[in-house]
Amino acid sequence: MLTLPPVDPPAWWRMQTRIGRDHYVRGDTNDYSVHPDAIGRIVTVLTDNDEVLALAPGGVIVARHPRCWARHQTITDPDHAEGGKTMRGQLQYHQQAARQATAQDPSGPLVEVEQREPGSHDRLFTIIEGGGDSEAG
Predict the structure, then answer these.
(1) Rounded CA gap, 99 and 107, in Å?
(2) Which of 36, 44, 58, 82 is the most exposed, having the fewest neighbouring CB atoms within 10 Å of its CB?
(3) How confident is the model at residue 132, as a pLDDT?
(4) Residue 29 — very low, low, confident or very high, per pLDDT cuts 50/70/90?
(5) What is the full DSSP assignment across 76-119?
(6) What mean pLDDT comes out for the span 7-34?
(7) What is the DSSP string of 15-79?
(8) Is 122 strand, coil or helix?
(9) Computed over its alpha carbons, how large is the radius of gyration of the chain?
(10) What is the per-residue pLDDT across 90-114, written as a single tens digit (0 to 9) for each?
(11) Are 53 and 45 in contact (CB under 8 A)?
């Protein structure tokens, strides 16, 4: 048998993941909530025998949960749930305001797109006669 190393091995598991719209990370078979401000960011998840910790860039803690040893559980921090509810409300407000602004402005599309006759692309790429540089202008 070999001698023990001079430094204890780490007692935690480390992984990095990008936080999705549901703002949860998976540790083992369980899902742990993360503060919704971290959505879209890459976080480092540290899991040991007692705790699950999620760190945003700069070492900001965006989640801290006691480790759950049951399987297939969803663990939600009430602050994370409230933050998600607030963010969804803000999104719905902005979407509704955008729909109302569009409904009040009947001027049509904001971007004008050039319309060409159907055969012009065929002529442009010399699929039919008269193609090549005949429309270069």
Answers:
(1) 14
(2) 58
(3) 52
(4) very high
(5) --HHHHHHHHHHHHHHHHHHHHHHHHHHH-TT--SS------TT
(6) 90
(7) EEEE--TT-EEEETTEEEE--GGGTTSEEEEEEESSEEEEE-TTS-EEEEEE---SSS-EE--HH
(8) helix
(9) 28
(10) 988 888 888 887 777 666 556 777 7
(11) yes
